[in-house]
Design a protein that fits this description.
This is Non-homologous end joining protein Ku. It comes from Paracoccus aerius. Homodimer. Interacts with LigD. There is one protein chain. By secondary structure, the protein is α+β, with helices and mostly antiparallel strands. It has 6 helices and 10 strands, in the order ββββαβββαβββαααα. Strands 5-1-2-7-10-9-8-6 form an 8-stranded mixed beta sheet. Strands 3-4 form a two-stranded antiparallel ribbon.
């Protein structure tokens, strides 16, 4: 069954406009979630905001956003003031510019959404924009109000549709040079490099979504199923973490042993 429509609006490029629908590309709907209960009564525990000084509960109408400018000193902003600085239109994806597809590093990618035509009439305009981006190797950049904040978004062709990625804000992405600059630039020797490439070849396979299954989720579901039947399922003992022994053996010996082990697995 197709999921519910998440967002409806328009895709606009200069004078070309077409209705579009936006759907989240990922979901956490099947994740195991827990409520906090009172162990004595079995009732759910509710949370509420409490004044940090008077320790009295705060009514919803009295809650306000505050920006700290000093110790116990805040600038208060109403919700209406915060919302007023957003885009005037929250229903139009107006493509401002295009950039080469490869120019945006993965670290800027935030959350993916599927973008598709909103009706049959708009399919031609949608397809023209999509295919032109694919042919030119570019992605579109726009801005949109999502998750209650104005965000930069990237439109990337994918199959018959597009993927709209929200992009991280500039102050969220750290400069990799702060971390990588101290790493030695010396080139590895040819022999170990050849063996590592061979080892990679031995371990290379086709991508499969099962590679990223959540084993903790599966075990939790087993425990919940057992409790539903009134059985007490013994939890598996936590595996002991084994620290690597460090660079005790030289890298060539380690690589040769690794390749031998992989060869045995392949033959089995």
């Amino acid at each position: 069954m197709a999921p519910r429509t998440y967002w409806k609006g328009y895709l606009k490029l200069s004078l070309v406009t077409c209705p579009v629908t936006l759907m989240p590309a990922i979901t956490e709907g099947d994740k195991v979630r827990f409520h906090t209960l009172n162990a004595q009564t079995g009732n759910r525990v509710v949370s509420q905001y409490v004044d940090s000084v008077t320790e009295k509960p705060v009514r919803d109408d009295d809650e306000v956003k505050g920006y700290e400018r000093g110790e116990n000193d805040y600038v208060m902003l109403e919700d209406a003031e915060i919302e007023a600085v957003g885009l005037e239109s929250t229903r139009t994806i107006d493509i401002d510019m295009f950039v080469p597809d490869h120019s945006i590093g993965w670290v800027w990618y935030d959350r993916p959404h599927f973008l598709l035509p909103g009706d049959e009439v708009g399919q031609e305009a949608f397809a023209v924009i999509r295919d032109a981006m694919a042919a030119s190797g570019t992605v579109g950049i726009s801005r949109l109000v999502m998750y209650r904040r104005e965000r930069a978004v990237m439109l990337k062709p994918r199959g018959k549709g597009m993927v709209l990625w929200t992009l991280r804000y500039g102050d969220e992405v750290r400069d990799e040079a702060d971390y990588f600059d101290d790493i030695s630039q010396s080139k590895p020797e040819a022999r170990p490099l050849t063996l590592v490439r061979k080892l990679i070849g031995e371990k290379t396979t086709h991508w499969d979504p099962s590679m990223v299954n959540d084993p903790v989720q599966e075990r939790l579901l087993d425990i919940i199923a057992a409790k539903k039947k009134g059985k007490k399922r013994a939890a598996k003992p936590k595996p002991q973490a084994h620290e690597p022994e460090g660079n005790v053996i030289d890298i060539m010996t380690a690589l040769k042993k690794s390749l031998q082990a992989e060869g045995k697995r392949s033959s089995r």
